[in-house]
Amino acid sequence: MSESLLHIRPNYIDYAKVIGMFLVIFAHYYYYYPGMKSATSSLLYSIHAIQLFHMPLFFIISGFLYKEFRSYREELAKIWEKLCIPYVLLCWLSITTYFAFWGGFSWHKLYYTIIRFIMGFDNPYIHLDVVCGAMWFVYALIIIRLIYMAAKKYHVILYLSILIGLVVMHLGNCLPFRMDSALVGFLFFTIGHCGKKWI
Question: Alpha-carbon distance 183 to 178, whole Å?
Answer without folding.
Answer: 9
